[in-house]
Amino acid sequence: MDYDYLVIGAGISGSAAAYELAALGTVALIEAESTPGYHSTGRSAALFTPNYGVATVRRINKTSQAFFLNPPAEFCDGPLLTQRGMLTVAAPGEEDLLAPILDLSTDGYEIRKLDAAGTLSLAPLLRRERVAASAFESGVMDIDVASLHQGFLSGIRRRGGLVLCGKRITKLDHRDGLWKASARDFSVKGRIVVNAAGAWAGEIGDMAGAGPIGLVAKRRTAIIVDGPPGLDIAKMPAVDYVAADAYIKPDAGRIMASPGDQTPIEPQDVQPDEWDVAVLVDWLQRETLATVSHIAKRWAGLRSFVADQAPVLGYDAAAPDFFWLAGQGGYGIMMAPALGRAAADLIVSGCLPADLLANGLSERDISPARLA
């Protein structure tokens, strides 16, 4: 069978695009690993707010909100979002750095300044001497990543799409109006290739003869440790820092912490660097009341960026019927609903959805042509 759309990469972005395209034609979603979302989606502890990221990302996040709050019938069994909140903490002497964060406040996602006492009342885990003030956004929500991803994958199958795992594409050929995607013991043909291969999107682009977009894969490290005995942190907001990239987040009664690292690395089954973990543990003990005697879990994931940190969606100028869906950085999960629709509409009609346009996004903002 020849398909209308071959979507390479079954992470959250590829799954969202395949879900939308499956309502418009025949789709094969092709994943290199045995499990969809293994490298990035499955290693994420995602939050939702329209106030994260560069301006392009914020416009896309804002458009995703309606889907998160009201997913289609049969998409999932429960809510995709639950209340969390986010504190951006300033240490003594850093208070003025909160101003740009406070300026991001929007209707429904207001950000207000708290003094040290107000900050510590919400996050008693923090060391008192390390807190001068914070910016608090109460509307930040936890995303049920597993339900979101499975909702897309189940929806693809309900719409007649095919999900293929364990098929690492090693060759792409275009002939007589069709792409042939080949793996070691497998091949499939389709009219349009959607390159949603995450950190491997550059390699897939090379196979297709597409122009470069300057995609760089970066490692993000995280650990889970126990909190201080007797301190209930389950409902504590997530915490990040105005003068550092590190952040912490309650996770099933424990603490998830990350240095927010973005270490360039070749695409691979990335593992945490022991030095990064040691530095993170030291930082966590200096900033919080946690005493780390045991790390319950440690891992690393891949985030992929282009130079302007905005996603790349659009047909390639050199490779026929080859569509980029890449460079989501650390925002792929919260952007996924809007990016899935954007990809489908651009592929089929050449236009962005009306709500994305109304929120100020232009095709140029995300086109691969901007990176030429």
Automatic annotation (TrEMBL):
<feature type="domain" description="FAD dependent oxidoreductase">
    <location>
        <begin position="4"/>
        <end position="346"/>
    </location>
</feature>
<dbReference type="InterPro" id="IPR006076">
    <property type="entry name" value="FAD-dep_OxRdtase"/>
</dbReference>
<protein>
    <submittedName>
        <fullName>D-arginine dehydrogenase</fullName>
    </submittedName>
</protein>
<dbReference type="Pfam" id="PF01266">
    <property type="entry name" value="DAO"/>
</dbReference>
<dbReference type="GO" id="GO:0005737">
    <property type="term" value="C:cytoplasm"/>
</dbReference>
<keyword id="KW-0560">Oxidoreductase</keyword>
<dbReference type="InterPro" id="IPR036188">
    <property type="entry name" value="FAD/NAD-bd_sf"/>
</dbReference>
<dbReference type="GO" id="GO:0016491">
    <property type="term" value="F:oxidoreductase activity"/>
</dbReference>
